[in-house]
What we know:
Number of strands: 0
Strand content: under 5%
Amino acid sequence: MALGHVTREYPCWPGHIVSGPDDICTPRLHHPVFFGSFDWHSCVHGYWMLAHLLRRFPELDVAGEIRALFEASLIVAKVERECAYFRKPLMGNFERPYGWAWLLKLFAELHAYHDAHWAQALSPLALLIRTQLLDFLPKATYPIRAGTHANTAFAVRLALDYALATDDVSLTAQLTAAARRWYLDDADCPAWGEPSLDEFLSPSLTEAECMQRVLEPAEFATWFEKFFPRLAHGQPSCLFIPATVSDHSDGRITHLNGLNLSRAWCLWSLASSLPADDARARRMREAANLHWSVAFPHVSGNYMAEHWLATFATLALT
């Protein structure tokens, strides 16, 4: 699916500010690497999925196709044009923070691959976004808790993968400080607003997964108990019930399939931090399995799902 959509230029949602007539052009001209998959961020995380699977399963049947795509796309000239787009006066905030985080996670994946030349080609864009993120974090007085692209916990979580993979001490410190500033004092999370109609992230579970990455194990255990004090009793109950998707072909409503997959990811991950016989771990594993079983059959079937849901299924399975 990803090989089919990362090079599919249309339909497209550009998320683009038009400053003049020269800015009106096809997606491929603006984004010679990440022009497919309906929107820039979905194309980026489609590339991440392909890179991740290529590294994990080098004998994959389509490994040759993935390598050929990367050889054609991840080259210096094309990446420079991607950088030039971000340098435009009104485009500095383009894809902040979701697309930024996925680009950094893609770089981390390529960085881990045995052949570094794709990562080297992408490096200028990763460094540019790293700089923008470092500028953004200190002035982000408040977190964004929405279960959509603006969610700051999800962005920190993915960006940390980049910071740790590249031994970026400065970025690690900034991301850690931001997460602690935003979330450390949170307690007794009711999750009463979950889910909203077009969410694909659980604000509460994503925050907890982020803090699991940020805090040392002992500190996280204390924070987690404070944040979800009734988890062993299945509360907040809304987190244990998969979201109902009334129309799988609706581009916004099918976000809820992504919510079920990302909940599975968070629940499995959080359960792994607890002792195997912990009642909370058992409940979370059961809920993760249920969310997965409900969502996975709908990863394919229509383009509004296929251009992004496979990534979230892969993320859950990692």
